[in-house]
Amino acid sequence: GELFDSFDAVMERMKQKYIFEDERHNPLEDHQVNQSPKKRKTAIKRRLLPPKIYFHAFSGKGGVIPSLLSACAKGNLQPEDVFFGFAPAIPNFYAPKTPSVMKRIGINQLLIETDLEDASRTWEDLIEGVRGISDAFDLDVEDVADITYG
Fold first, then answer.
1. What is the band of 84 on the pLDDT scale with cuts at 50, 70, 90?
2. Which of 90, 80, 23, 81 lies closest to 49, judged by CA?
């Protein structure tokens, strides 16, 4: 048999999942790490994007942000519907470029996340994420928690 489902079968499952989660007003995480470039290109051409997108553990450079937002706009997504996660468990969180990348994205589009294998440290990791964002934006930790929570 085939290693992967057909593109149409995957897209139909994703569409049903998006409709279900959107009706429930739930965030949706969908990893498409192994998607072939041809399938990804076809999905963008057809503008088959979910109502909101989240870039998990984002570690790109600030210069790529406009291109990502432009690609999302082609899929009928507004910038306020595109989110970027930052996780202290990922080494790039501590890279010198990270604060400027966060500023380029804007605090309202940031998600604090943890990418730990050990759930017992989740709370501490999330607090570390809030601290990193507060340093990047020169804000109090409490303000960052309020802004990113609501």
1. very high
2. 81
**Residue 45, both tokens:** 């051409």
- Encoded tokens for 141: 């930790």
pTM of the complete model: 0.68
Residues 6+ apart with CB under 8 A from 120: none
Residue with tokens 């999330």: 126
Tell me: pLDDT of 20 over 50.
yes
The 10 Å Cβ neighbour count of residue 43 is: 18
Sign of the dihedral through C-alpha 104, 106, 110, 115: positive
Distances in Å between the Cα of 88 and the Cα atoms of 104, 119, 126 are 19, 14, 8
Closest CA to 107 of 83, 75, 77: 83
